[in-house]
């Protein structure tokens, strides 16, 4: 049995493929701790699913014969959990059942499956629960190898385990507490409630460094240059405020490119005085991915793609982010107001 285990949340329909879920439980018995989506009929199903996804290391989604029971919003818990996992940028392992042409599949399930398979790069297909174990051996270790971002839970000594004899629920609780401690060591955890959906606070005056590429034109010659730039989170928030009501990940990248273009031209011309034009300024892909993760963790942006017909993820600025800017503006205006009245 391996020393390190992870918390995996299983996204699934609430009335579907019990044998497949049982096979998954057996496969992960010595490898991971599992939580599952619960029935959409329960009033706290959505909150529970979101909390599990917030806490987990990886997400495993099983799309089988059913779309699941729909919430009053018209979408199932499986659909909501998938969107939450995407919004939290959790590593996803997706299993999709192969259906014969004569299979009776609902339109909602067809649309949802089509949306997922069009967005995700790697899908694992199965036909029966017998296929699951061999499929998971390949898929699970490939996912962990590609996304070694989670600390997981490291087993204590065998003597301690024997003396304490923890229950499954106690071990899972210890796992979640251990992960929370690790997160607190690396980030500032918000004191706000879970409903605020904030896992990391950002200070507007703090700075971060990004890498970008640009093309410099000098005497008819084109030179590709790579430089770094320091920005503040307030710079980024002001850029987000100027974005459309909903925007794609590409739109976010374009907005940041426009933010850094002016300063990039100044910096490059200082180093290369004969340059007469700078074009195609682009932030590095690694940095845009990092920034998007931070914006999601700070609850500055949230996923708003609830339509299965939409083929790309769409984001929007949250009320929380807008309030930060309003509070900042009020704080800077207060001293001047006091001075004028005195």
Please give a structural write-up:
There is one protein chain. The chain folds into two domains: 4-186, Rossmann fold; 207-333, Arc Repressor Mutant, subunit A (Orthogonal Bundle), CATH 1.10.10.10. β7 and β8 (221-232) form a beta hairpin. The longest helix has 23 residues, at 249-271. It starts with a strand and ends with a helix. The model is unreliable at 156-196 and 336-342 (pLDDT under 50). It is of the alpha/beta class. Strands 1, 2, 3, 4, 5 and 6 form a six-stranded mixed sheet that branches. A three-stranded antiparallel sheet has the order 8-7-10. It has a three-stranded antiparallel sheet with strand order 9-12-11. It has helices at residues 18-27, 45-55, 77-87, 107-119, 132-146, 158-164, 168-186, 233-241, 249-271, 285-297, 319-341; strands at residues 4-11, 32-36, 58-63, 92-97, 124-126, 153-154, 207-218, 221-232, 247-248, 277-283, 301-303, 314-317.
């Amino acid at each position: 049995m391996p020393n390190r285990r992870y918390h995996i949340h299983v996204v699934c329909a609430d009335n579907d493929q019990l044998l497949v879920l049982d096979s998954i439980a057996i496969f992960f018995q010595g490898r991971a701790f599992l939580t599952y989506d619960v029935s959409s009929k329960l009033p706290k199903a959505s909150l529970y699913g979101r909390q599990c996804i917030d806490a987990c290391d990886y997400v495993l989604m099983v799309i089988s014969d059913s779309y699941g029971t729909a919430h009053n919003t018209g979408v199932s818990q499986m659909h909501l959990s998938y969107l939450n996992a995407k919004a939290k940028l959790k590593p996803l392992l997706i299993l999709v059942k192969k259906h014969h042409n004569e299979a009776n599949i609902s339109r909602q399930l067809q649309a949802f499956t089509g949306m997922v398979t069009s967005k995700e790069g790697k899908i694992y297909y199965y036909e029966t629960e017998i296929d699951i174990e061999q499929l998971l051996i390949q898929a699970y270790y490939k996912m962990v190898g590609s996304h070694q971002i989670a600390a997981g839970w490291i087993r204590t000594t065998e003597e301690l385990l024997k003396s304490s004899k923890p229950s499954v629920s106690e071990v899972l609780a210890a796992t979640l507490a251990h992960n929370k401690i690790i997160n607190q060591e690396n980030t500032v955890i918000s004191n706000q409630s879970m409903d605020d959906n904030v896992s990391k606070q950002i200070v507007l005056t703090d700075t971060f460094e990004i890498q970008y590429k640009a093309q410099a034109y000098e005497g008819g010659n084109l030179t590709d240059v790579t430089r770094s730039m320091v920005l503040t989170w307030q710079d980024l928030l002001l850029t987000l405020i100027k974005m459309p009501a909903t925007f794609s990940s590409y739109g976010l990248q374009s907005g940041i490119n426009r933010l850094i273009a002016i300063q990039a031209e100044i910096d490059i011309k200082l180093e290369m005085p004969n340059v007469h034009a700078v074009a195609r300024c682009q932030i590095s892909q690694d940095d845009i991915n990092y920034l998007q993760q931070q914006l999601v963790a700070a609850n500055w942006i949230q996923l708003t793609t609830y339509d299965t017909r939409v083929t790309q993820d769409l984001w929007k600025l949250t009320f929380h982010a807008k309030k930060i800017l309003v509070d900042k503006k009020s704080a800077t205006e207060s001293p001047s107001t006091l001075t004028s009245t005195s």
